[in-house]
Amino acid sequence: MKQGEERYKQRAAEEQSRVLVDNPLAYEYDALYDEETERRETVLAQKKVNRQNLKSRYLNDLEVAAEKRTREQSAAWENMESKERIREV
Questions:
Q1: Per-residue pLDDT averaged across 52-78, rounded?
Q2: Three-state secondary structure call for residue 50
Q3: How far apart are CA 21 and CA 5, in angstroms?
Q4: Where do runs of H (alpha helix) occur along 1-89?
């Protein structure tokens, strides 16, 4: 059994050396993965900062519409109150 294990280890070592000759980065997956993950995180963080600095396209229109509604509602309340005062007299 030990001979089989030794042959397996020897073949694995030979295979690994052949692969490394063809492609030196073949077994550096973890390092490459960590670099890619770090790059993605920095890109996402930068996009998040950029999004925080943006103002909505429609926010100004919504603010104008809210002010208009407020003015219309206050005018309607004033009109209603004036009518009630006239009825009381």
A1: 90
A2: helix
A3: 24
A4: 2-22, 29-53, 59-88
Q: Are 19 and 26 in contact (CB under 8 A)?
A: yes
Q: How many domains does the chain have?
A: 1
Q: Are 10 and 3 spatial neighbours (Cβ–Cβ below 8 Å)?
A: no
> Per the domain annotation, does 51 fall within a domain?
no
Q: Which token pair is 12? A: 């694995």
The total number of residues shown for the chain amounts to 89
pLDDT digits (tens, 9 = 90+) for 22-31: 887 777 888 8
Amino acid at 62: L
pTM, two decimal places? 0.38
Q: What's the N-to-C CA distance of the chain in angstroms?
A: 113
Classify residue 48: in a domain, yes or no. Answer: no
